[in-house]
Amino acid sequence: MDVVLFNPAPTGGWHVYRRVVLPIGLVYSATPLDHAGYRVSIVDQFADRLWKQKLLKALAKKPICFGVTSMTGPQILHALAACKLVKKKYPDLPIVWGGIHASLLPEQTLENPYVDVVVVGEGEVTLLELVKALEGDQPLNRVAGIAYREGGRYRFTGLRPFVDLDKQPPPAFHLINMRRHGESILGVDHIHLSCSRGCTMDCAFCWNPVMHRRRFRKMSAGKVLDIMRRVMRDYGLRGFMFSDDNFFIDMQRAYDILEGVVRSGLNIRIGNLNIRADTLCRMDRDFLELMVRAGVRRVGIGAESGSQRILELIKKRITIDQVIEANRKLSPCPIRPSYFFMMGLPTETPEEFAQSLHLADRLTQENPKATRSFKVYTPYPGTELFNLAVQSGLKPPRRLQDWSQLNFVNVLPQTPWMLPKTKKLVEALNFALMCSDHNHALGSFRKVDPVTAALARAYSPLASYRIRHLNTNFPIETKLINTLRFFMGRDL
Q1: Which of 319, 374, 390, 444 is deepest in the core (most CB within 10 A)?
Q2: Are 398 and 90 contacting, i.e. CB atoms less than 8 angstroms apart?
Q3: Where are the CATH 3.20.20.70 domain residues in the chain?
Q4: Global confidence as pTM
Q5: Would you say 350 and 425 are in contact if contact means Cβ atoms under 8 Å apart?
Q6: Contact by Cβ (8 Å): 431, 411
Q7: 404: helix, coil or strand?
Q8: C-alpha span between 426 and 416 (Å, rounded)
Q9: How far is CA 221 from CA 106, 228, 252, 258, 296, in A?
Q10: Sign (positive/negative) of CA torsion 407, 412, 416, 418?
């Protein structure tokens, strides 16, 4: 192989629901390399139990470089463990890091001895030029969009312009096992796709405004339809999960894609489209009916909080009334809304957390098809809300590996941005929210491990009681699950 790319497991240890997602970022970055004639191997730690053997086999062919992607959080530890393995066996092989975290903090990332070069931003053009430079032993300062060390000093070659998504070659899906990355939803295998990047909003908790500078870029409707046809033809898959941050920023383009699906008679299922509540409020009946005819079965909506003060703090730019209105608008449709909430936000009071619980309950009561999930707020570097967390006492990690502790699943011992009473509630109800009725991960929407589902159903009455009454007394089940996580390999 000329280039080996590695997708570390996003989390470790015990999982209520194990979701294997297509590493679309690596596929898109690998596509120009493949198109240029380079031999690329993508190793996915989460999807392939024999990942280590596959990795060592690919490395034995003496590639030009080893590339790694990672987000902020536990994925960093898995990435570093793989890099340590590579450096021990092949000390002269250049290790290239990319992805969100390295792009946000390239200088600190390079301080780690297992990182040689950082791709800052999008990887398609930058990685191809970097591989050519490494192959020809050319100076790295000619490659835009990278950071590296030279003579012990940090060097950054400057930001590269955003890529034109329509001018990129067709995604090199043959580099991965598409079936292994399929997700069964309502009996149909779905694959994750992305057909746009960036977002025009300025949400204070999100890394997107930092990474994409509030620029929205998109593939044309025709190209999106071509990609779906190729996946159906080459891999026999007819289900698609779009991971775009906001599929409906350009409403006309979204309409053209959905109308193209209907006119082409593709007979597909769309298991996810992310949409804002205020966008849904603006939709007319014809647009909603088109979504249904195009096979849309679920939309993801960031409700975030039941407190209007918190929504304004995080610059969500929506109102509680809009969330309720959007839910009522979807109620007669066969489309299932999934609402995403955060808990433990900076300055959030127990009363405001209770408002989120109340709103989530109201949404699922008024629309029985609706599901909801609660995740612990995670301060991502460079975001506006991260700065508020620092003002509240958060000490930013000084080493790459220390960022692995930040996690949206578990409450950390040190969370100075959380008010003490709010933290107590979040800790006590976190597991209950995962196992109560209408939880997104354990709902009937997707296939779940039967043993996990049975245990969740047995615990659900107690979980619902705790949530309804904000009961934090004797949280035995929380201590039990944390003990199990400790012995089975706890998520950090």
Answers
A1: 374
A2: no
A3: 182-403
A4: 0.92
A5: yes
A6: no
A7: helix
A8: 14
A9: 34, 11, 10, 9, 16
A10: positive
Better-scored residue on pLDDT, 364 or 455: 364
Greatest CA separation for the chain: 66
H or E element, residue 106: helix 106-110
The topology (CATH level 3) of 3-156 is Rossmann fold (3.40.50)
> What is the spatial distance between Cα 106 and Cα 303, in angstroms, rounded to a whole number?
32
Contact 96, 127 (CB under 8 A): yes
pLDDT at 308 over 80: yes
164-219 pLDDT, tens digit each = 999 999 999 999 999 888 888 878 899 999 999 999 999 999 999 999 999 999 99
The string of pLDDT tens digits covering residues 412-450 is 888 999 999 999 999 889 888 888 778 876 655 555 567
With bands split at pLDDT 50, 70 and 90, how would you rate the model's confidence at 336? Answer: very high
Q: Which CATH superfamily is domain 182-403 in?
A: Aldolase class I (3.20.20.70)
CA 100 to chain centre: 10
Q: How many other C-beta atoms can be found within 10 angstroms of the C-beta atom of residue 187?
A: 8
288's tokens: 């909603």
pLDDT at residue 159 above 60?
Answer: yes
Domain with CATH 3.40.50.2300 in the chain: 3-156
Neighbouring C-beta atoms of residue 159, cutoff 10 Å: 12
